[in-house]
Specification:
globular; TIM Barrel
Length: about 280
Amino acid sequence: MLVNMKDMLENARTGGYAVGFFDTVNVEMARAVIEEAEELNAPVIVGTAEILLPKMGLDRVADFLIPLADEADVPVAVHYDHGLTFNKCMEALNLGYSSIMYDCSTVSYEENLENVAEMVKICHAMDVTVEGELGHVGDNEGKGKLAKPEDYYTDPDMALDFVRKTGVDALAVAVGNAHGDYKFPPKLDFERITTIAQKTGVPLVLHGGSGLSDSDFQEAARRGICKVNIFTDIDRAGKTGIENGLKAGARFLSELIPYEIEAMKAVVREKITLFGSVNKA
């Protein structure tokens, strides 16, 4: 069933577990995530990030994501991840997305607060949840890599002010995490997670989840992380599935699809189990 993130993340916060968010760029990815969530009786979040839109238009993603979510036997939120522009967020809202992340983390604090507060007013009027980001989660490589990530960590007192003044439903935090492949094992600031969670009282979000250790995920969930974003791991798994199909002698694209989906489902199963959300639907 298509839902917003509010109840599933509040339940995760009180229950001490996390819900997986999986970026999806084609119907095979979406099927892998939702079908595995149904098999595990787990709530799940699917969607796509603005940076991925060159691979598939937002309207095309909505065409398959929203019906699949609506028909699912478990709660599924369809989330617009890392929305960077107001117009694209409005497009996602009008297409039927049930949750919006308005990422203004690279502008001044005052502008971030003002922009997100306005987005919350619009979205809440339509029963859509909003995720904001405070601090800034950079990339592990490329132009988005931060020279000193600790300079951009989320400040707990600022987080409290931000949550109070915007009314966001979830807050993405920078605590030593980064997007993409980790070249070295990350060191998450667990004490910072605990402090932010206690001060704000809202579900926290961990971006850059692909590549973190099992113990990192479990400890983060215990301390207040309620949503974990995954893309690189399932993206890589889909490629591996296709390679396995070719090695097995598949001759046509249609013959490769089951291999692709099964490989991605294995990753989704691993993550949902690790996050502790099995049988939490």
